[in-house]
Amino acid sequence: MKVFSPGLAVTTAMTYALLFAAAPQAFGQTGFFGAYDPRLQEVLWNDAVGLQQNGNHQEAIEKLKRAAHLSRINDGLDAKSQLPFVRAEIASHRALNQFTAADERHAYLSRIEARAIPSGPEKITALLRQAEWHQFALLEDIDEDEEATARMGKAWNFYRRALNESIATYGEDSAELLPALEGMVRAQYLLAGHRGIGASMPGRMERERRDFAAGKSTFKRGLSVLVAMQQLNRDRLSVTREIQAQDLIRIADWAWWTGNRNYALNFYNTALALANGESLEPVANETSPLTEVDASLDPEATASDSNMSETDTGEDAATAQPLNAETQHVNAEIEQEPTDNTPIEEAVNTPVNPDYPTFRILETPVALPAIAGFGPVLDIKTSESEEGDLVVSFNISPTGKVVNIERVQLPVTTGPRGPERVIRRLRKTRFRPAFLNGEPVESDTITWTFEPKHWAMPASTHSETST
Questions:
Q1: Would the pTM of this model clear 0.85, i.e. be above it?
Q2: Which one of 1.20.120, 1.10.3470, 3.40.5, 3.30.2420 gives the CATH number of domain 378-465?
Q3: Could you tell me the residue ranges of all domains in the chain?
Q4: Helix count and strand count (H, E) for the chain
Q5: pLDDT: which is higher, 104 or 30
């Protein structure tokens, strides 16, 4: 028969207390709880957040995996409580450039989100996060060619589903639709860039050889989304004329970037008319512009939808319906061949309305694509130049091309990669030109500075300054 000894209990407690005081990290905070105590999740979460803040992402990943495992044990395999842990784990994988692992965890996350978040604002946010991951993966070029093509469809599909959910949650007259529409615009830039259509894109995305037959249809698909945004803002949200002008500029930028110069000039000039206080009459459009935004507009997205499994999207393909299943074609003004006479709005030949404010636009060149959610094609140094930096000056022609490049400071490198690769990419970048009196003109001289991180290998560099 065992006899309880108070003295022994006190001695044992004191021993553990002394051990923990001497080596708290070795003993661990989790030692206070049982192996599967749900309170461990919060302890592990706090530890992981601290590790992430200190840059110890690999250790954070292990703690987050354990926290998610405990969540599944305590709350079920599809537990919503595991979502923050999985998302934080993905963030650490991305910080370590472990993109394959991040992709696998995103696929798992998507399945759990589909089951744990049936609808509403939280589901919209989850869909947008998934789409933005696929956008990031495309720009980072982490896939083989066939996988990249499939990922194009996934990016489009997640943005489209986010739009569908936004409409179901907020209705067709809400500004809450804009994040999904903006994502769909980025998806069209990604698709065009992947097909070799348009100018340089940010990131390292590989380009196929340009398919000229696909160029026109690609332009129209992107245009339909941009027009939907423009008409939503103008007709339903009654935004200011400044925002209306920016919407028209965004449409013009898409046309300019894809090489549809005359079409772009119409939109730029319409935006200038708004800025000059002119009255504009919208073209009649009896149907909602959102009915034009349909997955059938993108053959790659349609193919992806038809083969998409629960592993890819978190829900069956049958539930991922087009925005309007009855839409058979886009609005006639979009379907017609782009010409010089097909703007969304046309300036009326009447005097300037004094009730309309005037404002200044299109006075300086802008590198394209100028889209929220995309970084710049080239990362420009904003601080003072240093020895080892590349410094170039140039002008932007009326057609938006870089001309008159001068190497103000050209670093000399001993490695196989040099600053000329930055200059080559600069030449491929398409700019929105500056406008004067309604016409694009050559810009004043622009000077940009680039750091060695754009080209340098682990080797010494020195600079030569032009005379």
A1: no
A2: 3.30.2420
A3: 97-261+289-325, 378-465
A4: 16, 10
A5: 104
